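seq as requested:
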Amino acid sequence: MTRKIALITGGTGGIGTEICRELCNQGRQVIAGYLPEDEEAAREWQAQLLAEDCQVDIVAGDVASYESCQAMVEQVEARFGSIEILVNCAGITRDRTLRKMEENHWRAVISTNLDSVFNVTRHVVDGMIERGFGRVVNISSVNGQKGQFGQTNYSAAKAGIHGFTMALAQEVARKGVTVNTISPGYVETTMTSAVPEDIRNQIVATIPIGRMAAPEEIAHAVGFLCDDETTYITGANIPVNGGLYMS
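struct tokens:
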């Protein structure tokens, strides 16, 4: 398998880290995106993965900014070459019921979780089309499929991601480029570990498999969609949710 270049936005996060490991194991040249103000933490993260013999590089960029994403992509391509695999994984939450949600809570989540998918993909898709190969994987959420109390902003953004996936998949289907969504359920990350135990137990009780996902399980699905041989799956929304939502 050739050493194709993969950019993972939000690559230093819990799920993003495992995606980086998965694609490193596939033999990809992996570049993880991080916010410019998080440079020190990103460099510590990189050092940890390099110590594990996962050859990952890092690049700064604010995915909520179109101009910053353009600069980030240009930097990656100047250093490493054309981006052939893109995983849009960056995301945040600002949970409130709609009656208590301020405009900044709405805009922050929409900008980081949904606008970012356009902001980054727009700058790589032409090159993928020209080369006749590309893999775009967008990380959505089970809550984009079923909704979630207190998450009108997050659920709207995550639902929008798959709409983007289906439309772009049709535009590039005959160009050797696949575009797919993965919708994780609840995942064992630092964020979910901070939830009080009684609340965690209530969440797990609603999951048919009876546990949260390991981040590696999300990453495995990403790796499958990014494989050179996965050529006939596009426009799909792959649920990795333990049966929490079935359709």
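DSSP finds ten helices and seven strands in the chain.
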